[in-house]
Amino acid sequence: MTETPTPYVAEKRTPMELAETLRARIPGWGVDLDPADRPSFPREQPGIQTGAHWDFPERQPESRPREKSIEHAFVTPVFGTSTPPAGVSGAIRKYAYKYSEGRAAHWLLLIAADRVNAWEHHLRSLATLRPDNPVTETGVLSEPARHGLRSRFGSKRADVNHQWIDPILVGGPWVLAGLGAVTAVRALARRASGRK
Amino acid sequence: MRAMVYRGPYKIRVEEKDMPRIEHPNDAIVRVTTGAICGSDLHLYHGMMPDTRVGMTFGHEFVGVVHEVGPSVQNLAVGDRVMVPFNVYCGSCWFCSRGLFSNCHNVNPNATAVGGIYGYSHTCGGYDGGQAEFVRVPFADVGPTKIPDWMDEEDAVLLTDALPTGYFGAQLGDIVEGDTVVVFGAGPVGLFAAKSAWLMGAGRVIVIDHLEYRLDKAGSFAHAETYNFAEYDDIVVHLKKATDYLGADVVIDAVGAEADGNFLQQVTGTKLKLQGGSAVALNWAIDSVRKGGTVSVVGAYGPIFSAVKFGDAVNKGLTLRMNQCPVKRQWPRLFEHIRNGYLKPSDIVTHRIPLEHIEEGYHMFSAKLDGCIKPLIVSSAS
């Protein structure tokens, strides 16, 4: 090391590239240099025009009791109605909403409900004309067309060391469920034939 | 109508679904003409966001044509071509009236810590999203804007989240002339953040990722100096050396919850969902910024705790700034930049996937195949 690096002395060792040079090589360089030209400066802008023509919005009708955070004073005047809670997962979700957003229990119960919810629907789908198909629904069939091997290998990528876990996470429970079903059917068949 | 629906972690499919309906007098129904998959959709897709329910339609980046309006809608009419910010917001609550549109208090009964977002779990309000033929758009007089005649549809769809979020991330850095700015993540938001840093007068812009094709794009699109962290034993040390041991003045985390670079963080954060996300990029940001510097966070994280090196942030006297982007605040200035030729957002689009094959789009984007940077979704609605 020939020179003392910057932080040990008062001035930056490496001078900045000249503004004229930067302006010449980068379209628009410095056009927002003045913070006043930056739309989120300052962060809060009281009185900003939004298009709202109400002080408090009219309330969206609630066709069923809507789950809400206990940190809210009431159900907000507008809300999404995508997928109401139902079944076992719905019961877990409703229980999770007894805890505030500050409690780990709230979020961990919701995550648990998400996993239960998926299996409720997987099982229900088996009784329909369109059962869940983890092969088509994961999109893995696009691997050859999207150059799966060439994309992953040949350059240094940091994610190939854990991508192998994904098929186990997704397919593992299906394999276990399948083995469980086969075992159960064989046990029932044995019982029906009177064998021990 | 046809719509993408979530079927559980890593699994989606396209189904027939009921048409959305007007549920509030200021609602509109929009026929989606172009949508996109956002990197943050992958957190939902991987099952990381609490209260993501089977049957939900994702998608918070979309543009389309107004199909129906509620009785109190004044600013839009049937047939208008509109771009819709990813924020669902009322325009009148304590937060909206100060410009904090992404923090609206009137649209999300499920949580107070986050506002409303289309197609982004019940934690963000339970709204179905725009990866469908039609979508319900609440507060039609507040969020959507008619797409200017001169604007390309693909530029417009990138203005609904990715570009404004990157631009906002650079603003959160409070960049002054000559600053060295490091951006973690060369995805769409990182590319736009790097490009925006120049507009704000940065003297040097460095982009870090592990995907060579994205770093190439950061070089060509955002004029950035690039480093592949997978090629260094310790990217923090490399960045210190590259900045004469000072550290960067500003670091932007444009990665969020699925950051690579640490196996333990990946397994606990993204596979086992025991954290709100893998905090690798955020920790690297804290460690590679200079003392007294600013870390801007626009990468998305879940609401659960994450293993963040907060002590270093305290000891270094850092300014940490973060938020979801209030999109519509950014639009007038970004429209100018696009018209002036400083920004061409659609330059980062790599794939256009029909809605009917959206599961391929998710897999390709998630596994980073085929040079994917930004996949758009082309609706089949006529």
Q: Give the low-confidence spans of chain B.
A: none
Largest sheet of chain B: 7 strands, mixed
Distance between the termini of chain A: 82 Å
What percentage of amino acids of chain B are in beta strands? 15-25%
How would you spell out the order of helices and strands of chain A? HHHHHHH
Number of helices of chain B: 11
In oligomeric terms, what are we looking at?
heterodimer
Largest interface: A-B, 106 and 115 residues
Main structural class of chain A: mainly alpha
Measured between the Cα atoms of the first and last residue of chain B, the distance is: 11 Å
What overall form of chain B do the CA principal axes indicate?
globular
Query: How is the main sheet of chain A built?
Result: none
Rg of chain A (CA only): 29 Å
In round numbers, the mean pLDDT of chain A is: 94
Overall description:
The complex is a heterodimer of chains A (196) and B (382). The mean pLDDT of chain A is 94. Chain A is mostly helical and 196 residues long. Chain A has seven helices and no strands. Chain A has helices spanning 19-25, 87-96, 104-125, 134-137, 148-152, 160-163, 165-193. With 382 residues, chain B is an alpha/beta fold. Helices cover 26% and strands 23% of the residues of chain B. In chain B, strand 1 (2-8) and strand 2 form a beta hairpin. At the A-B interface, helix 1, helix 2, helix 3, helix 4 and helix 5 of A face strand 2, helix 3, helix 4, helix 7 and helix 10 of B.
